[in-house]
Design a protein that fits this description.
This protein has 256 residues and is α+β, with helices and mostly antiparallel strands. It has two helices and 14 strands; from the N terminus they run H-E-E-E-E-E-E-E-E-E-E-E-E-E-E-H. The N and C termini lie close together (5 Å).
Length: 256
């Protein structure tokens, strides 16, 4: 190979590394998004929800379904893999919670079939292509959801619940469905939440349905409290760097 050809190959490799690193950095800025955004925009601790819910970590059987409008999820691009979810305890002056566990805590993600505000009381009728992202037992360590904040201050985000199957966001509204058995604790973990009619955006940007049974098919409450939540994407992959370099090396071999 001539000297100028070698220089050109090296230059192309350097450019490929720079471009791929740049793409990785752009993708890598994606982080968790807090919902509802009206109460948590630039900071995930922007405001307390003004309500509370025990549906997510109840000491009784529960089935709940949440819908989030696409406008609340603009931080995610189509095909973003989502890997975890997080909540925070309601603002109160007393310390919170011992270790807890659930025999089953099943979480499903799906595209929305209906608009927020037009959700069906039948849970299945609100979902397109549902994916069970985790199922089976769930154990929460002691102090998983720290307390002591007094409204309007809020508590920090708590224990991150990771998915065993990432959900690939397809764009549009997102539906999250949870069904769980009673906790082993005699008390429920009470989460920061947003309720109609006073919470900004409820019924247009987000909505929650609930039922007081495990694996329920129909909601008994079409205006349940919506918990503040973080939805966490997978970190961006840097595998493209290796692919880019490998392609250039193959080209170099052909032209040698």
């Amino acid at each position: 190979m001539k000297r100028n050809q070698s220089i050109n190959v090296i230059t192309r490799v350097r450019v490929a590394i720079s471009v791929t690193l740049g793409v990785g950095l752009v993708l890598g800025v994606q982080g968790q998004t807090a919902v509802p955004t009206a109460f948590a925009t630039s900071s995930p601790l922007a405001a307390a929800g003004g309500s509370s819910t025990a549906n997510v970590f109840s000491s009784a059987n529960r089935t709940v379904q949440f819908q989030i409008a696409a406008s609340e999820l603009s931080y995610f691009t189509v095909n973003t893999p989502l890997k975890a979810i997080n909540f925070r305890a309601t603002s109160q002056a007393t310390p919170l919670f011992q270790a807890d566990s659930f025999a089953d805590w099943t979480l499903t993600f799906a595209q929305a079939r209906n608009a927020v505000g037009s959700m069906s009381a039948t849970f299945a009728n609100n979902m397109l292509d549902p994916v069970v992202v985790r199922t089976g037992g769930l154990s929460l360590p002691a102090n998983a959801y720290p307390g002591n904040a007094v409204a309007p201050a809020v508590n920090p985000w708590g224990f991150e619940i990771k998915f065993t199957t990432p959900y690939i966001y397809k764009g549009g509204d997102l539906v999250i469905m949870l069904s769980h058995t009673p906790s082993t604790s005699t008390s429920s973990i009470v989460l920061d939440s947003f309720s109609p009619p006073n919470a900004a955006g409820y019924g247009t940007k987000y909505q929650a349905l609930s039922a007081t049974s495990y694996n329920a098919t129909t909601a008994s409450n079409l205006g349940a409290a919506f918990p503040a939540m973080q939805i966490v994407p997978e970190p961006a992959s840097m595998a493209a760097i290796g692919l880019g370099i490998a392609g250039l090396m193959r080209r170099r071999k052909r032209t040698a």
